[in-house]
Amino acid sequence: MNFVNTKLEEFNNYLDGRRVAIIGLGVSNIPLIEYMHEIGAEVVVFDNREIDKIDVEIMNKVICYDMEYSLGENYLSKLVDFDIIFRSPSCLPSNPALLLEASRGAIVTSEIEMFMELCPGTIIGVTGSDGKTTTTTLIYEILKAKGYHCYLGGNIGIPLFTKVGEMRPEDMIVLELSSFQLMNMKISPKVSVITNITPNHLNIHEDMEEYIEAKKNIFKHQSKDGTVILNYDNNITKNCADEAVGKVIFFSNVAKISEGYMVDNNSIKFCNGDFRTHILETKEMKIRGLHNYLNAACSIAATKDFVDLDTAVKVISEFKGVEHRLELVKQTKDRIKWYNDSASSSPTRTIVGLNSFPTKNVILIAGGYDKNLEYEPIAKPIVNSCKSLILIGQTADKIEKVVKKELKNGVKEVNIYRCETLEQTVKLAKEIAFKGDVVLFSPASASFDMFKNFDERGKKFKELVLKLV
User: Is 227 exposed, middle or buried (0-12, 13-18, 19+ CB in 10 A)?
Assistant: First the structure.
């Protein structure tokens, strides 16, 4: 019997002839624009960039569809009298223009929230300050290896809204969800994972509390048959268990938890009361670092009701990691290893990267766009792990200040250098690196002062290493 998605049919019928606002002319919203055009909605698109800053192909499509558009500094001034508004993650629901339209009766949602409302399959969602992309990818690969028809989306993968019509109840959907996507969301995945919560994006969120509350939406709207997987070692996520409606599963590398998953004595174990069941030796994994072992434990917890343990272990053992996350770019003849960790856009992520190298011979390249984060916590890990520190970008002063303060507390020396461009950092690192050293590009900062995103930044670093080293 053919499956009919009645929710989708009702949604399509509702939209016919309605006034729809789509905020943001990024790549992820293009399928949404096409979809709304096809079903006969009256669409107006909005973007805070001027027309010459927007991709020509995207603007041509808007013009071809004869859609109205509002661009530039006061782009939301025409956001009046709409039935439904699809906001981009960068346009927060707290925006006064959105609040005003909502008070008039408009439905304010997002592409990803509406997708979750209409999706007939089982959704597994992953959020966190660190580790969410690796965990999301691992979950997807495990499910796929078992033979499920899977979709990967959210912050990674492809825009999934236009795929709803082809999805079936037996399909599995894995989503990486950012705090901006989760803000004001009124629906949660069947299985939710929070890898950790540490200060991040405080240049955009009103405060840390708003950031935390956004993350909590990944599980707060679950039913009793939902599952939330939480980091027991992180006080914020541990306390989230008090608000969970469904089942709670913890993971840890510190506590002797009664139910959940542990990274203990170089192995991943399942805990059930006083019993510990061995699952996998960490030395059998290709990805390195305690954080990745915990990511693997998360992925096992998230898939345990859908996939047998043997399949999960096989996938985890063979998994080589995700681009820009402690990615080995090159190893020279004299055993100097160059790692690209461009996705580490906060101090906590760089600390995790540094802790993955037990030696004291790391040359760290760090610095970038300032997200108003505190850099004090990174000082000791840098001093403990690094022989040299090469700084670049807006946060260079902040990082240098805390490291120099830490150096006054001991006898360890760290050579500190400053550069203006990424190319200069690679050339300098090549000059000062000796046999057996690790060159780690882990900025502890966002990329927006010099690059479009961390992906572009990481690709540039790899290009420079392969060209100059």
Answer: buried
Q: What is the percentage of the chain residues whose pLDDT exceeds 70?
A: 100
The DSSP-derived string for 394-419 is TTHHHHHHHHHHHHTTSS---EEEE-
Q: Decide: pTM greater than 0.90.
A: no
What tens digit of pLDDT does each residue of 340-366 get?
999 999 998 899 899 888 778 999 999
Residue 136: left (phi > 0), alpha (psi -120 to 50), or beta? alpha
If DSSP codes are grouped into helix, strand and coil, which group holds residue 305?
Answer: coil
> Which residues, 6 or more positions from 397, have their beta carbon under 8 angstroms from its beta carbon?
none
10 Å CB burial of residue 362 (0-12, 13-18, 19+) is buried
**CA 112, CA 125: separation in Å to the nearest integer?**
11
- Cα separations in angstroms, 333 against 32, 259, 320, 469: 50, 47, 22, 11
| Largest interatomic CA distance in the chain | 74
Q: Kindly list the structural domains of the chain, giving each domain's residue range(s) and its CATH number in brackets, ordered by start.
A: 15-109 (3.40.50.720), 119-318 (3.40.1190.10), 327-468 (3.90.190.20)
Query: Tokens at residue 396, please?
Result: 């260079």
Any bridge partners for residue 278, and if so which? Answer: 269
Separation of alpha carbons 465 and 443, rounded Å: 16
